Amino acid sequence: MVRGGRQQQPRTRLPSRLTGTVEKPPRKRKTRDLPQYGQKQWQSYFGRTFDVYTKLWKFQQQHRQVLDNRYGLKRWQIGEIASKIGQLYYHYYLRTSETSYLNEAFSFYSAIRQRSYYSQVSKEDRPELVVKKLRYYARFIVVCLLLNKMDVVKDLVKELSDEIEDYTHRFNTEDQVEWNLVLQEVAAFIEADPVMVLNDDNTIVITSNRLAEAGAPLLEQGMIVGQLTLADALIIGNCNNQVKFSELTVDMFRMLQALEREPMNLASQMNKPGMQESADKPARRENPHKYLLYKPTFSQLYTFLAASFKELPANSVLLIYLSATGVFPTGRSDSEGPYDFGGVLTNSNRDIINGDAIHKRNQTHKEMHCLHPGDLYPFTRKPLFIIVDSSNSVAYKNFTNLFGQPLVCLLSPTTYPKALQDQSQRGSLFTLFLNNPLMAFLFVSGLSSMRRGLWEKCQEYLRKINRDIAQLLTHSRSIDQAFLQFFGDEFLRLLLTRFVFCSATMRMHKIFRETRNYPETYPQLPRDETVENPHLQKHILELASILDVRNVFFENTIDDY
């Protein structure tokens, strides 16, 4: 559910993911009935009487009826109405992170395609109508990507390719190059995964990376951990040259999937043994609320941070995920404060001062277009969980916990072995470990495909590894209590265990030879009890043996058993 009082109305124009803008965060987030929401925009958009669209809103409650031609409209106009309703549901998803709204958007977009409401557009001589059709395809693809409906995505990409080819052949417009770029982006996006899982007939298996039932390691009875809950997440992407589509980079998409639950039928859940819950137990929120920010300016990023910080409920956690190019300090500094180690890049294109574009400062000044560790200090007044995937992630190792609230930073390697650097455009290896650790393990082991049966066997063994990592963390006598404060939340618990698996794998791998190749944390984890634990190292070698890739790992790092 969305919290707060008044909610900002959604925009009926093209979503920010397709326009290069970042939407303002709603000051208050509260669910209200859809028919009360956006009627004026609809009236002005279609230029018809308010009464007609009031009736359409009523029909909207019965999805199919909205799509029937009851008002003598052209078929493409009905398609636009249905597309706008689907877009409205998509906006609701962005504000609430409730997957049910995505499913509603998918139902409307699917109906448009099945009933061929845009079929007559190609016969028109008006390029703006064709652009409406192309935008519909782009929005539909985004929804299908978020729902992991990759089979539908591939069909839509083929149809979009045909439509763009026809569009560029018939009209000599300035946006031909842009639409061809859109097609190239989505094609690269769906091919970003470095490993394919195959059925016996060589068809590709669609794998889901959302949090499944019992996907996170269960807490042992009597285990003392914090009761904090992940409520909000800012997912920020500002990596140069990384594959993206609709202003959603591969890293952003993977982290978004890692912070969502797998949709589940409630009845089947309650019928499973051991799944009955007390009637007086409060309902669990489906997903944390998420802001998706692609190349935001510093002011935009800070606006979202402040809005999320303000609305964060008690006993809740704010997660900040930064996937961005590193900004390194210029010149020498006599001090070592939170602004002396650089940080990660923010966008400077839209920051204007006194009407003039900002120019590069001299070396005596700090970089303006950079999120320094010190910039996050005000937000450590509440529980904060930070993930930094950047070439200068170690800048965030220099944190100081000023207010005594739980604070953890997971920091990526600052560089990778040369053999893996060519794959950086397809997404970061560190984020891949947090999203799909088995795929990342296969990738660093030199495997590009795997049969479904072996994949499922390895997944089961990886779940055992995660359970053991959870025990290592909770049984450690020297671990910082901040880690355990976050361990009560399923999403954060899974991210922590995957991080330990990632770090242990890289430390044992033969091509990861430099200290810069290893991820780090703030506060530091006790290495001998976690990432360099002999029991965990033995598990990693056993997983490598299952895959017949044991030769790429060091074996002299474990004790004899």
From TrEMBL:
One of its GO terms (molecular function) is transcription corepressor activity. This is Protein SCAI. One of its GO terms (biological process) is DNA-templated transcription. The gene is LOC114047355. Residues 1-11 have a biased composition (Polar residues). InterPro entries: SCAI. Residues 1-35 are annotated as: Disordered. PANTHER family: PROTEIN SCAI. The lineage of its organism: Eukaryota, Metazoa, Chordata, Craniata, Vertebrata. It comes from the Eukaryota.
